[in-house]
Amino acid sequence: MSLVEQNGKNGARLSEARASDYLALLKPRVMSLVVFTGLVGLMVAPGHVNPVLGAIAILCIAVGAGASGALNMWYDADIDAVMKRTRNRPIPAGIISREEVLVFGLVLSAFSVMVLGLFVNWLAAALLAFTIFFYVVVYTMWLKRSTPQNIVIGGAAGAFPPVIGWAAATGTIGWESLVLFAIIFLWTPPHFWALSLFTTNDYAAARVPMMPNVHGEASTKLQILIYTLIVAPVGVLPWAMGFAGPVYGVVSLGLGLTFIAYAWGLWRASSAEAALKSAKKLFGFSLLYLFGLFAVLLGETIARSIPHWIGA
To answer: Does the pLDDT value for residue 49 go beyond 90?
Structure first.
């Protein structure tokens, strides 16, 4: 039996997509990181958020992120079909039609923005709407196919969740949330350029102008090192600005120096094989770096809140 059957009477397509296929459209791995950083933004904000409203805010951030992922797959179906790591996604695999995914993504987008605005506040909702627009229109439709700086500028979309979380808690945009934005924004290029170094052929086949395909491996390795040298000290700023404690300060310094060491090793790699291994190691560590920073920040915030919870 085929995945999509034709109705013999009227030619209507009967989708056999399962719940897991629709879940795949939401890019759950990316969504989990978005939800986590959004939660940290919500938790580190001053004051105390009503737990129900906080849960609604995080749910809306998750749904908005999933909607962005679905709309990205709708537009990039042609690219996904020729890339090894994406060709089994629901649209190129023939499980769900592009039209269904477009409607699915638009409905989720509208739902997430409206619920966040009606139940939490409209600043957070506006930021979520802008994030979805930026990822789908600015990054996916324009930057991704037109410039090797696509991931640099487009990385702003993935950096907004802690700002949205902060806005949901306070109704404002604080300097602290902008520092968290900057950490993710500056982390994105070395993270994705490391990935592109060992998926170069995929991007070339899809005609996506990633940095290694346009400017070569040497230039990419140098830019990864430069961005890592910038993001490492920025990662320490939450402690320097006083909204993170000494544990965060020590951890962020250690993770930053390790990040630089991996980037330095990649830059110094003299052979293609050594560069490939170094790129994979850096890519893996970059995930640990970002998760580690936000996890420690969240842990310190919870620890400081315990006395208040007990007193309450």
So the answer is: no
